[in-house]
Amino acid sequence: MTKKEVLVNDVIIQAEKCLQELNYSKQTIKTFRLIWQRFSDYAQNEGQQQYSREIANGFLSQYYGICDPGNPKTKFDRT
Question: What is the pTM of this model?
Answer without folding.
Answer: 0.79
